[in-house]
C-alpha cells in the first residue's frame, strides 16, 4: 500500500518556493472576496449557506440593498435578511442602527440557547447577548409582533430561568397585544416583569 505524505506550503502566493513533485506540496485555494452590492467595498462572505449567497458586507448595507428592491414581499425580506444571518429585516435594521455601532459593548447575535418545558422540551434562543461596560450580561429580544404564542413562551422561559436578564426592544411598543385590547406591548412587559424599550437601546442598559 502506497502512503502519500501531503504537505501544505506556507507560501500563500500562486507560486511555491519548493518543488511540488518532491515535497508533495499542494496549493491551497484562497477565499475569494466579494464586492458589496450596496457600498461596492470588497468583503469576505461569511453567511453563504445552501441557496443563500451573501451579497452585502454588513447589516446597514443589507437594509440599503433591500430598500432598492421592487416589488417587496415577505419572502424577499426573509431571503435578504438571511444574507447577514438574520431572520427578519426588522432585526437587520435594529442591528444596523443600534448594535453594529455600539463598539463600547460586546454584542453577539443568537449565541446562546436555553431549554424550557411546556408539554415537551423546547429551546429558546434570544436575539442578542450584550455585555455592558460594567460587565453585566443581558439578552435582547427584538419584536415587531408580540403574538400570543411568543408571550406564553417568554413567561415560561422567565419562570424556568429566573437568573436570566431578558429585555425587550419593541419595534413599536404602543402596539396592542391583540385587536380591541387596551394592553400595549410595553404594558404587557411591565406586567410580566420584563424591562423594555421602544425601538432603541437605552444608554442606561450599556453602563
Task: Please tell me about this protein's structure.
It is a single chain. By secondary structure, this protein is of the alpha/beta class. It folds into 3 domains: 1-30, no CATH class; 31-101, no CATH class; 105-207, Restriction Endonuclease (3-Layer(aba) Sandwich), CATH 3.40.91. It has helices at residues 20-23, 59-67, 74-81, 89-99, 148-160, 185-191; strands at residues 7-8, 25-26, 34-35, 42-43, 106-109, 114-117, 121-124, 128-131, 137-143, 166-170, 195-198. The strands form 4 sheets. It has a 5-stranded mixed β-sheet with strand order 5-8-9-10-11. Helix 2 runs antiparallel to helix 3 (74-81) and helix 2 crosses helix 4 (89-99). 21% of the residues are buried. Mean pLDDT is 85; it is low at 1-23 and 25-29.
Low-confidence stretches: 1-23, 25-29
Shape: globular
| CATH architectural name of the largest domain | 3-Layer(aba) Sandwich
**Structural class assignment:** alpha/beta
Q: Give the radius of gyration.
A: 23 Å
Strand order of the largest sheet: 5-8-9-10-11
- β-strand percent reads 15-25%
Arithmetic mean of pLDDT: 85
What top-tier CATH class of the largest domain fits best? Alpha Beta
Strand and helix order: EHEEEHHHEEEEEHEHE
Per the CATH scheme, the topology name of the largest domain is: Restriction Endonuclease
How many distinct beta strands?
A: 11
| Gap from first CA to last CA | 65 Å
Number of helices: 6
Amino acid at each position: 500500500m502506497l502512503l502519500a505524505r501531503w504537505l501544505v506550503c506556507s507560501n500563500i502566493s500562486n507560486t511555491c518556493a519548493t518543488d511540488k513533485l518532491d515535497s508533495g506540496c499542494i496549493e491551497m485555494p484562497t477565499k475569494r472576496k466579494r464586492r458589496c452590492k450596496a457600498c461596492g467595498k470588497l468583503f469576505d462572505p461569511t453567511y453563504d449557506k445552501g441557496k443563500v449567497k451573501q451579497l452585502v458586507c454588513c447589516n446597514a448595507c443589507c437594509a440599503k440593498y433591500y430598500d432598492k428592491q421592487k416589488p417587496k414581499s415577505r419572502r424577499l425580506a426573509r431571503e435578504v435578511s438571511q444574507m447577514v444571518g438574520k431572520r427578519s429585516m426588522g432585526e437587520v435594521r435594529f442591528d444596523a442602527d443600534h448594535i453594529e455601532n455600539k463598539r463600547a459593548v460586546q454584542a453577539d447575535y443568537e449565541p446562546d440557547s436555553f431549554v424550557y418545558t411546556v408539554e415537551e422540551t423546547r429551546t429558546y434562543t434570544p436575539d442578542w447577548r450584550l455585555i455592558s461596560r460594567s460587565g453585566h450580561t443581558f439578552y435582547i429580544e427584538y419584536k415587531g409582533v408580540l403574538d400570543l404564542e411568543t408571550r406564553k413562551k417568554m413567561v415560561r422561559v422567565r419562570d424556568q430561568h429566573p437568573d436570566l436578564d431578558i429585555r425587550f426592544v419593541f419595534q413599536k411598543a404602543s402596539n396592542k397585544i391583540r385587536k380591541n385590547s387596551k394592553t400595549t406591548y410595553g404594558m404587557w412587559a411591565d406586567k410580566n416583569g420584563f424591562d423594555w424599550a421602544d425601538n432603541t437601546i437605552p444608554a442606561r442598559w450599556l453602563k
